[in-house]
Specification:
- The structure is a single chain.
- This protein has about 60 residues and is mainly α.
- Helices cover about 50% and strands about 0% of the residues.
- The protein is globular and about 25 Å long.
Length: about 60
């Protein structure tokens, strides 16, 4: 289960299908080559994402499909 405490690096390794969703929602740009992103919650806070729970729900739905 993905939570705001999930490290993005771990999530992307385990669930590569989440990359597109993260990029479309403006959470992180995987292509930019950021070496470390931290947790999903930290990254969404830095990006000033307001609908964080919606994104977490969408990520969990994507990995369950």
């Amino acid at each position: 289960m993905i939570t705001k405490d999930t490290y993005i690096e771990d999530m992307v390794k385990e669930y590569p299908q989440t990359v597109t969703l993260l990029m479309k929602r403006g959470v992180v740009c995987i292509r930019c080559g950021e070496p470390v992103w931290g947790t999903l919650g930290e990254t969404m806070d830095r990006a000033k994402i307001e609908n964080q729970d919606e994104i977490v729900d969408a990520l969990n739905k994507a990995v369950m499909a």
